[in-house]
Amino acid sequence: MHPRLAFLILPYTRAELPGWSRVMRLFGFGAALGGAAPMRPEWKALPTAVVTGKRHGFKMKLDRSDWAQCATYFLGRYYELGVQRTIDQLLREGDTMVDIGGNIGMIALHARSLVGPTGRVICFEPNPECAAAIEEHMEMNGIRNVEVRRCALAASPGTLTLNLTSEHSGTATLAPVSGKVVKSLQVPVRVGDDELEQIAPKVIKIDVEGFELQVLQGLRQTLARHKPVLITELVDEHLARAGTSADEIHEFLSEFGYSPYGIDTQRSPIRHDVVLRPRAAPTPEFWDWLWK
């Protein structure tokens, strides 16, 4: 089925009716569900689409040749539902959220809808193309209280190489890469405690493709002073290439009194609800973890 006929299933997928993922696969859009298969050549010819997010009401500019943005197009929301449903429970009007690894701003838009015009969202994104996309999204929506800082965070300042391991911008990592590298660039690196010295975040989300421990090591003072709720992606393969592990992160955060909860979702008759699964330590069954 040609992707220009996607409108035939959009009402079904955007309503997230039971079996929507099977419908997408039936019509040949399985790659949009996780990137396991390459995007079909036909998608390259499609123009960028602007969609209004059904959960936050803001406009999203989506490149449908990218599997993550393609999934967002079909669903009308960012595909990482567990993280969004988690911050739904955490953020209120006037709160401050820090988004480390902001990519193109999908989580930032969702967070901004929760903290409102009196709150604050600070995005750290070292990839200049992604940082520009966040800024464009905020400009499109007339948002003035989402700040983009074009740098990475780590335990010490300097300059590091950012490697993009596929055409999907979410695969960019500061860790050494032994396999395929699509693009490399030098990016500025700063220390989180220095950047957030005058800021009291309610929530910090960290998704940096294996560099999570280094980011946390640069946030010692912030964690001790404010103990924000943390949301981290932990993927064993990504952590290993950075020379760390989920166990090391658990040990580090335990010093500050944090306990891990796997972020899961389960479907009720009309929606998906977030379920936090307490664990003694992080396990591979979940990629996204809440720490509190």
Q: How many strand units?
A: 14
Gyration radius, rounded = 19 Å
Give the uncertain stretches in residue-range form: none
The DSSP helix count reads: 11
Round the mean pLDDT to the nearest integer and report it: 91
What's the end-to-end separation, in Å? 46 Å
The largest sheet is: 8 strands, mixed
Percentage of residues in strands: 15-25%
Order of helices and strands: HHEEHHEHEHEEEEEHEHHEHHEEE
What's the helical proportion of residues?
Answer: 25-40%
Structural class: alpha/beta
Query: Globular, elongated, flat, extended or rod-shaped: what is the shape?
Result: globular
> How are the strands of the biggest sheet laid out side by side?
5-4-3-10-11-14-12-13
Topology:
Elements: H1 10-14, H2 20-26, E1 49-52, E2 59-62, H3 67-75, H4 81-90, E3 96-100, H5 106-115, E4 120-124, H6 128-140, E5 146-149, E6 152-154, E7 158-164, E8 172-173, E9 183-191, H7 192-195, E10 203-206, H8 212-217, H9 220-226, E11 229-233, H10 236-241, H11 246-254, E12 260-267, E13 272-278, E14 288-291
Helix pairs in contact: 4-5
Task: Offer a quick outline of the entry.
The protein is α/β, with parallel strands linked by helices. The chain has helices at 10-14, 20-26, 67-75, 81-90, 106-115, 128-140, 192-195, 212-217, 220-226, 236-241, 246-254, and strands at residues 49-52, 59-62, 96-100, 120-124, 146-149, 152-154, 158-164, 172-173, 183-191, 203-206, 229-233, 260-267, 272-278, 288-291.
